[in-house]
Specification:
Layout (H helix, E strand, L loop, with lengths): L2 H10 L5 H11 L2 H6 L2 H5 L5 H9 L1 H4 L2 H11 L1 E4 L20 E5 L11 E4 L6 H16 L4 E3 L5 H11 L4 E4 L13 H9 L3 E4 L11 H12 L2 E4 L7 H11 L3 E4 L10 H8 L3 E2 L3 H9 L28 H11 L5 H8 L3 H13 L3 E4 L3 E4 L2
Parallel strand pairs: 3-4, 3-7, 4-5, 5-6, 7-8, 8-9
Antiparallel strand pairs: 1-2, 2-6, 10-11
Helix pairs in contact: 8-9, 8-17, 11-12
Length: 375
């Protein structure tokens, strides 16, 4: 049996992961020999057991590697293993690197992730969290760093979108097969990532449905492929804290963005800071930490870009709330708390509208909770 095919079979079997792959290689010399071993020989291999031995002996009834390869070819997906040049170099260093990686998009990007930055955070996030995720993603893109995240709602989406806007490269590591994009509303975003010089990445077979087990497994790839992981917003039970913990175990840098003391979305980040994460108030904090790592040089600084041209309001489609806020700001209401009061709208609706207006370059938030009108 060909080695690449044997690895694909192991990856498709539910009871076999990176740890058992190492056991099988140690016991039988190769994964090909393990798939040809008898049930008794497999059971005598410590750490395998009867259930996994049954899977290995009966793999033909559990998976169809030929159909998987045909579907991958039809979908434009590359299936990589550690012997491929595109397999991410930092991912090779973790203790449980994926047996296979499914990549849709520019897979050559995966070999250039020595300076990659992982950006993660809460699915239910604030406008502040979205703004900070976008800021760090854009700055990383301008520095030439790939941005890695998990395609989830909230912070992940903000990081991917900001990277695309900045013309950078982003890697979306998903918790299911590449034909099972989750959440469904991010299918369009996934397509833009794959078509825009980025990569969709998964260790799961193409039709694997994401579940509670697969997302923590996905998180170790986000941290493992990245030189550092930035947590933007996270509650005390956030899955982002799992990613941060895995990054620490993998010997990678962990950064946390501080938040307001009275919001639950900041508690996870503040806990990370108490536990030794690096405080990230600006992109310079990340650059300074990266330059301390052996063998790395600071990214080249780009020349200062010219300020963006002023936007014509008439050319934009504004919601009723956005028009109301624009009118209030033109009347001189440029302090955030005063704007919230004068608008007589729900604060969360106002903050979401302000974020949309920032993306349209109508307004900019400044220190001291002040707003600057750009039109």
């Amino acid at each position: 049996m060909e080695h690449r095919r044997a690895l694909l079979i192991l990856n498709m079997l539910p009871g076999v992961g990176p740890a058992r792959k190492r056991i099988l290689e140690r016991c039988f010399g190769s994964v090909e020999s393990a798939l040809e071993a008898s049930h008794g020989e497999l059971c005598r291999c410590a750490g395998i057991g009867g259930r996994v031995a049954d899977e290995l002996r009966n793999w033909r009834s559990l998976c169809d590697p030929d159909a998987e390869l045909r579907l991958a070819e039809q979908s434009g997906v590359r299936i990589l293993n550690e012997e491929d040049a595109e397999y991410p170099p930092l991912l090779r260093e973790i203790h449980d690197p994926p047996i296979c990686l499914y990549a849709l998009g520019d897979s050559s990007l995966l070999a250039k992730t020595e300076m990659a930055l992982g950006i993660v955070g809460s699915r239910c996030c604030t406008a502040y969290g979205q703004k900070m995720a976008g800021h760090f993603a854009e700055e990383a893109s301008r520095a030439g760093w790939p941005v890695v995240s998990g395609l989830a709602r909230g912070i992940d989406t903000a990081a991917h979108e900001a990277t695309l806007r900045a013309g950078g490269c982003t890697i979306a590591v998903i918790g299911g097969g590449l034909t099972k994009i989750y959440p469904r509303e991010n299918i369009g975003l996934a397509a833009r990532i794959a078509a825009g010089g980025g990569v969709l990445l998964s260790e799961f077979s193409l039709c694997y449905t994401p579940d509670r087990r697969s997302f923590p497994m996905r998180n170790r790839i986000i941290s493992g492929i990245s030189r550092g992981t930035l947590v933007v917003e996270a509650g005390c039970q956030s899955g982002s804290l799992i990613t941060a913990a895995q990054a620490m175990e993998q010997g990678r840098a962990v950064f946390a963005v501080p938040g307001r003391a009275d919001t639950p979305f900041a508690r996870g980040c503040h806990a990370l800071l108490r536990d030794g994460a690096v405080l990230a108030e600006s992109f310079e904090d990340l650059v300074n930490e990266y330059t301390l790592l052996p063998g790395l040089k600071p990214p080249p600084k780009e020349p200062q870009a010219a300020p963006p041209p002023r936007v014509s309001v008439a050319s934009l489609h504004l919601s009723g709330l956005e028009e109301k806020l624009l009118r209030l700001m033109r009347e001189g209401v440029l302090q955030m708390d005063l704007l919230l009061e004068r608008s007589e709208e729900e604060p969360q609706c106002v903050l979401s509208a302000l974020l949309a207006m920032e993306l349209k370059r109508l307004v900019r938030q400044c220190p001291g909770r002040m707003l600057e009108l750009l039109v």
